[in-house]
Design brief:
Layout (H helix, E strand, L loop, with lengths): L4 H4 L8 H39 L5 H7 L2 H9 L8 H13 L3 H11 L6 H14 L11 H9 L4 H11 L4 H7 L7 H14 L4 H6 L1 H8 L4 H13 L8 H11 L15 H19 L7 H6 L8 E5 L4 E5 L3 E6 L4 E6 H8 L6 H5 L3 H7 L6 E2 L2 E2 L1 E6 L5 H14 L4
Antiparallel strand pairs: 1-2, 2-3, 3-4, 4-7, 5-6
Helix pairs in contact: 2-4, 3-5, 5-7, 6-7, 7-8, 8-9, 9-11, 11-14
């Protein structure tokens, strides 16, 4: 009888995941021990080592480097970058580390760069490290090597060299940073994000690539001054209808405040851009007041006139909007009914103060509150007040509104 091997015996491939994890733990453990030993000896050995370097002529450094132990080299890189030493000594240290180069030098230099982006000698060491390792520098993938190469050759600095790559690459920023060994929340990441946004937020590419949420959360990391610089680039390039909701919500709600009330926080913008931000706030208020409409007809109608509006003021309970134009004010209610048109001076004198009156505040009836905002007298105490009342019923309500709006925008007849 023939045995059915397929049912009795199972083929498997052994993948030593646990063993690999343990190996990595041990490597890290002994790497840390190695560093600890070097740093322990630092207090006694480093001053002597630095003195030998100081007194050695530059053309004799290769000979000096040859006499140094592996521990000496580790000590030099672990204690890098020696900001208190003279420029000549620091150049000598770089020369020695270059002469006795190992991948530890490149890895440590890149690690230091995460939190020290302005040291020119550190950048010089990183450039030399990349030149020596190139294909294997800090374990980056082959596809990123050309971009590292361009960054290292950039005359303005390594970070500036990365920006064109970060601005134009289709890969998401988070993945790019991870692949390029740029640590999350490091000074290096902060600087690259800032320059990436300054160089690319004129267009939607970065937002579409990384997502609106990523950009919004990243902007939270910047100081107010940095934030304003980036926001200026973003806002000056767009009209209010092109703004992204979460970016503008954070700006107007949390970071800078409502530009209609805290205009001084927005003085970094041109007058044209500030007008666009105010219009976005007006549009947001229109969306809110008409949120309960199932067909969006009222919102779609009024948004056509946003560029003519001075402001839209909301009352939360009941939902009411005061839509201010140059010479008149329209009062719209959350519940679909009629819109009331008033002369601006009369409205500001007799209707607007009602919302702060005691009678309005203590009333428990929303319909009673709404009635307090509905006046039908053409004139009050010699001041023009009521203009018209238009409802939203029927198929041609928009045509009726258009006829009246055209007349009102041109000149309001008393």
């Amino acid at each position: 009888m023939r045995m059915q091997n397929s049912k009795l015996f199972y083929h498997f491939a052994f993948k030593p995941i646990k063993l690999t994890e343990e190996r990595k733990k041990l490597e890290k453990q002994f790497k840390d021990i190695d560093k600890d030993i070097a740093l322990t000896r630092s207090a006694t050995q480093l001053p002597k080592l630095l003195e030998r370097i100081r007194v050695t002529a530059f053309d004799k450094l290769i000979e000096l480097a040859a006499t140094m132990t592996k521990m000496d080299i580790r000590l030099l890189i672990y204690e890098y970058p020696y900001p208190k030493e003279k420029a000549e000594t620091r150049r000598k240290i770089n020369k020695i580390l270059s002469t006795r180069y190992t991948s530890l030098v490149g890895r440590t230099a890149w690690e230091l760069f995460q939190h020290d982006i302005s040291d020119v000698f550190l950048q010089e060491l990183i450039r030399d490290s990349f030149k020596r390792e190139s294909d294997s520098f800090i374990g980056i993938k082959e596809e990123f090597i050309p971009f590292f190469d361009k960054a290292m050759k950039n005359s303005s600095g390594i970070i500036d060299g990365f920006i064109p790559f970060l601005v134009k690459r289709k890969t998401k920023s988070e993945l790019l940073f991870k692949e390029c060994k740029i640590k999350k929340d490091s000074i290096l990441e902060h600087s690259m994000l800032k320059k990436m946004f300054l160089g690319g937020l004129q267009e939607d590419f970065i937002i579409n690539r990384d997502g609106e949420e990523f950009v919004s959360k990243s902007l939270e990391k910047f100081s107010k001054d940095e934030y304003k610089l980036i926001l200026k680039v973003y806002l000056e390039a767009r009209g209010f209808e092109e703004f992204h909701p979460s970016i503008l919500h954070d700006a107007t709600k949390f970071r800078l405040g409502d530009p209609r009330e805290q205009e001084e926080e927005w003085d970094f913008l041109s007058e044209k851009a500030l007008i666009q931000v105010k219009r976005w706030v007006i549009q947001k208020n229109l969306i809110e007041i008409f949120a309960s409409d199932s067909d969006n007809n009222r919102f779609n109608y009024w948004k056509r006139f946003i560029k003519y509006m001075d402001d839209v003021e909301l009352i939360k309970n009941p939902k009411v909007a005061f839509i201010y134009f140059k010479d008149f004010v329209v009062v719209e209610f959350g519940n679909i009914g009629a819109a009331y048109f008033y002369h601006k001076n009369g409205f500001e004198r007799f209707i607007a103060p009602v919302k702060n009156s005691r009678q309005f505040r203590i009333s428990r009836s929303n319909s009673a509150k709404e009635d307090m905002l509905k006046e039908r007298v053409p004139e009050k105490n010699g001041t023009p007040l009521f203009i018209n009342k238009l409802d939203h019923r029927g198929q041609i309500w928009k045509r009726r509104f258009d006829e009246q709006m055209q007349k009102y925008l041109n000149s309001v007849k008393e």
